[in-house]
Amino acid sequence: MWKADLGIGFSLLCVSVFLLIQAMELPRSHVGISPGLFPSIAFLGLIILNLALVFRSWRKKAEKKEVPASLGLNLRSLGKIALFAAFAWLYITLLRPLGFVYASSIFFWMIFILAGVEQWGKALLFSFLSSVLVYLIFYRIFMVVLPRPNWPIPHPF
Hints:
Blueprint: H1 2-24, H2 37-63, H3 75-114, H4 120-141
């Protein structure tokens, strides 16, 4: 398993460095936030996480206490993957009629339930609040236009 971690970590590290360089070459803005700021921050975070994965795999190699593990692909996990794909399709389908906040709330809630969260009410509340937070960050701060509801339902903002 340490070989897979090392290979994946190093490969994604190379891709992240390349994409960080590309994001830093985006044109600078004289007013407001530059278009390359958010991607640069995201790719820098990926570089840090991939470095952690590479170092962790080297440490595992040194310990050599690895037990062979299966890929974990059984019927239950394949069913969860299929459900996730169905939820993603439903999210894309509902994005136009419901708008970003409502469609994302439903999608996040379904993913929480799929992940095994037992408190459905708290999951729904957290899903709605996180959708609103993402909306506020991207719409108000980054000025990214996100879909609004086409159906006659109240929009929170």
